[in-house]
Amino acid sequence: MKLWIGNMKCGGCARGVTAIIHDIDSNSKIDIDLVAKVVSIETIASVEQMTAALAKAGFPAQVQ
Fold first, then answer.
1. What local confidence, expressed as pLDDT, does residue 21 receive?
2. Read out DSSP for 5-39?
3. Residue 31 and residue 56: Cα distance in Å, rounded?
4. What are the CA-CA distances from residue 12 to residues 9, 16, 46 (Å)?
5. Dihedral (C-alpha) 15, 19, 20, 23: value to the nearest 10 degrees?
6. What is the pLDDT of residues 16-25, one digit of tens each?
7. Can you give the pLDDT at residue 31?
8. What's the whole-model pTM score?
C-alpha cells in the first residue's frame, strides 16, 4: 500500500511513522520518500488498521 502523509516533514517524523507501522506488523517492509511525503508499505495489515493507527498518533494518511 502507498500512503501520503502531509505532515511528515523530517527524519524524526519518518522514524515515528516507521515505529507505528512496526507496532502493527513487525515484519512489514517500509520505504519512505520524505520529499513526496509517501510511505510504501508491504504488510499483512489492512489499510484501515494502518490509517487509524497513524491518525491516532498525529499522522493522518491518505491512500495513494
1. 97
2. -TT--SHHHHHHHHHHHHHH-TT-EEEEETTTTEE
3. 21
4. 8, 6, 24
5. 170
6. 999 999 999 9
7. 98
8. 0.94
